[in-house]
Design a protein that fits this description.
alpha+beta; two-stranded antiparallel sheet; globular
Amino acid sequence: MNTAILLIGGNLGNRTRHLQQAVQLIEEQAGKVVKLSGLYETAPWGNVQQPDYLNQALQIETTLEPLPLLHTLLNIEREIGRIRQQKWGARVIDIDIIFYNDEIISLPELKIPHPRMQFRQFVLVPLNEILPNQVHPVLQQTVHALLAACEDELPATLYKERR
């Protein structure tokens, strides 16, 4: 059994519903969800002329190897309605593999650990909620230490749905 840490997020349509749908499909198609962070809202990163994002971190147990896991997650994105048009553009759903066991993978289509995770609060804050002591296999620092050193000025705040 393998352990994968994922980050899901989106900023179009019913954001909470899309994240719930992603969790359900990940559980059905990729592996058992064993930890799940709260939902965190963050202003967009990169292309800022778009709605705010909701993000959530998941820890899953999976029998899938890294590339089959990636392809499964890309199929889940498509099933939910993701159309890839623009880098850092608005999206219904995005599913990233942040860690896979303690492995370091560098392939043209897949880099693990995620190469920019240490620079983004929207990744580190939800990860810190569920796995503060997870060690980055390249940087040899915990998620908690990476968050403490992160200079990203876009805070990730716990989301409370407006009624």
